[in-house]
Amino acid sequence: MRVAIATFPVDCSANYGCVLQNYALQQALKKLGHTPYTIRLADTVPRKESLPHLHRIFAKTQKKFYGQHTVLSDFCEQHIAFTHQVELPLESDDLASGNFAAYIAGSDQIWRPSYSQQYFLRYAMLDFTRSLSVRRIAYAISFGNAQWSFSRKLLFFRLRKLVSKFDVLSMREEEGVDFCRRFLRQNHVPLALDPTLLLDGDHYKELSVDGRPASGQLITYILDDTPAKREAVNQLFRSGQFSGRQDFSTKPCDGKVQPRMEDWLAAFRTAKFIVTDSFHGTIFAILFQRPFITIANYTRGLSRFTSFLGKLQLNERLALNPEAMTVECCAAAIDFPAAHTRLAVERQQSLDLLRQGLADK
Question: Does the pLDDT at position 69 exceed 50?
Answer without folding.
Answer: yes
